[in-house]
Amino acid sequence: xxxxxxxxxxxxxxxxxQVFDVTAALPAxxxxxxxxxxxxxxxxxxxxxxxxxxxxxxxxxxPVSSVRLLAANPSPPHVFAAPANxxxxxxxxxxxxxxKKGRSAREQGFFLKAPASLVGHGGSIGLPxxxxxxxxxxxxxxxxxxxxxxxxxxxxxxxxVFGYACLIDATMRIEPGVxxxxxxxxxxxxxxxxxxxxxxxxxxxxxxEALDNRLWVNGELRQQANTREMIVGIAELIELVSSxxxxxxxxxxxxxTPEGVGPFAPGDTVKIAIEGVGExxxxxxxxxxxxxxxx
Length: 295
Ligand code: MN
Fold this sequence. Notes:
By secondary structure, this protein is α+β, with helices and mostly antiparallel strands. It folds into 2 domains: about 60 residues, no CATH class; about 180 residues, Fumarylacetoacetase-like, C-terminal domain (Fumarylacetoacetate hydrolase, domain 2, Alpha-Beta Complex). The chain is built from 5 helices and 19 strands. Strands 1, 2, 3, 4, 5, 6, 7, 10, 11, 13 and 16 form an 11-stranded mixed beta sheet that branches. Strands 8-19-18-14-15 form a 5-stranded mixed beta sheet, with no helix packed on it. The radius of gyration is 18 Å and the shape is globular. Manganese (II) ion binds next to loops.
């Protein structure tokens, strides 16, 4: 199934180019916390399925293009992200890199992106007004965690996956010796984490480590790789993160970017497509307000 979050945090099932509103299948108590609907649905999936299917039967589809898609999970408890997880990406940033030479996510662990940096298909990556810094795209497969777990062994880890989505890990690069802010801040500007276009449940993605992953800027192909080239696989990432803290339903793990990372600028359109998961486009714009802290 393909689960979309849209408009005022409605929950919909996507079939072809139509979305069917199934929000009424969720508890009314969530009406006061609509941004939590996807977290609840993920955590209560098996119990919720009968009501979801019944509501789908009653719902009338509308074109996906007629709704405003939000981030596939608008309010995950965490967005974990793997640095340096594709061999050919390591080294391509020259002296703008913050990962020590030769180290991968296995040695570096994870970093965090702020959930408030999430945006959906059709949304915007907002760059600081007037900035002359370099801002890059990173094309990544996102894993959505389905159930709580701590110290999850690698052999059992895939059972904790609820589904998948496309994720763009937008990044402000350091200027060596001049501006070397923390990674979590450089990757957490509003709109810097497009996630979508919806969540595809794991049963529809039989081998998540054999998916073509491509990204275009204004129609020009910039990144093209396959998730089989990941250094630290999905199960090991889940083992690694859950060895540090408990994973929660709805958590997102960005699995790292392959080579081809490059800059974008205001006015650009960035499109990501992951085989069997979907396509998502976002716009790059400059923020209206000048930030009191120059970047
Ligand atoms: Mn990344």
